[in-house]
Amino acid sequence: MALDYERSPHLVAWELTRACQLHCRHCRARAIRHRNPAELTTEEIFGVLDAMSAFDPLPRLIFTGGDPLEREDLLPIIAAAVRRGHAVALAPSVTPRLTRSVLAEWASQGVGAVSLSLDGATPAVHDGFRGVAGTQARTLEMARAVVEAGMRLQINTTVSGQTAAEVEPLGALVPALGASSWELFFIIPTGRATAVAWEAEDQDRILRWLAQYRAKAALRVTAVGAPQFARYSDAELVPGRPPVMREARGMMFIDHVGDVYPSGYLPLAAGSVRSWPAPALYRESELFRGLRDNSRLAGRCGHCAWTAVCGGSRARAYAVTGDAWAEDPNCLLPV
Ligand code: SF4
What residues flank ligand 1, with Cβ below 6 Å? Predict the structure, then answer.
C-alpha cells in the first residue's frame, strides 16, 4: 500500500524508558541511571498499541531508550506489538544486559531487526564517545550475534565533528559485520549534544562522499537529520518523487512518559498519549500538521526547488534558531 504521510507515519520511535547504564556524550535523551516512576505502565503501552491500530498501514515500531532492556516488561511489550501486526525493531544499549540469549529470545518473539550504535572504527573513538571503555569490542560482538540470531542488523552512526573522520573507515566495517542497513545521524545540537561541534561544510563533504558510497553499496544507507541528502543522490529533480521522511512527515516519537514529538530531536510536544490517541496527535495536532505544511517554511527552505522532497531538518532549524520553520542552517545549497 502506498504511504500517505498525512494519514500514517512509516516509523514510530518509542522511548520505553530513559534509564541507561551508559553515559554517551551526545545522548538525545539525557539518559539517567534509574527509571522514572512516571513512565508509561505496561497496561498504558498496550492501550497505545490498541489505539495505533487506526493507522493504515501500521507503522514500523522501534523500541528505544535509554535502554529498553531496563524494562522488565520488555518481552510482553514486544509480543503485544508483534501480535498486533507491527514490524518491530529494537535499539538496545550495549551493556552487560545485552547477551546472545536475549537476542535469541527477541528473534523467537518475532523481532525483525536490531540497531546498534557504532560511532568509531577504532575503540578509542567509539569508547571515548560512548563514555565506557570496551564498548566498541562488545558492539562488534553483539552485531555479529544479531545476524547469527537471524535478525537484520542496522548500524547507527552519530556524525559530529568528533566522529566525522570515522565515516569512511566505517563504510568498510559496517558491511563486513553483515549489516543490511547503515543509518547516519547528523547530529542535532540537542540533549547532551549541545556541546558537540558541527559545521555545515563538514556535513556537505560527508553527504557528497555518502552519495557515492550509497550508489555502490549493497546495503541501505540513510541520513537522519539531513533530508537534503536527497539532492546529492540525483543529478536532477524527479517529478512526483515522494517526500523524504522527516519530523512529523512519516515519523513520530513517543517518549517514556507518553508525550508525542515529531522526532526525538525536536523538543516540541504535540500532546500526550495519556490524553489523546496517537493517530489523532499525528494526523490532527496543530504541530504535526504545521510541520507538514511546506508553505510555512522560511528562508531558503521556503523557496527551494527541493522543498517538496526535502524541506530541511526542522529539528536543526529549531535547535539553532528557536524556530522550527526556519531554514535548515546546515544546507549549503546556493539560491
Ligand atoms: S534549502 Fe532547505 S529544502 Fe532546499 S535542499 Fe536545502 S535544506 Fe532542503
Answer: 228, 231, 300-301, 304, 306-307, 310-312, 327-328, 331, 333
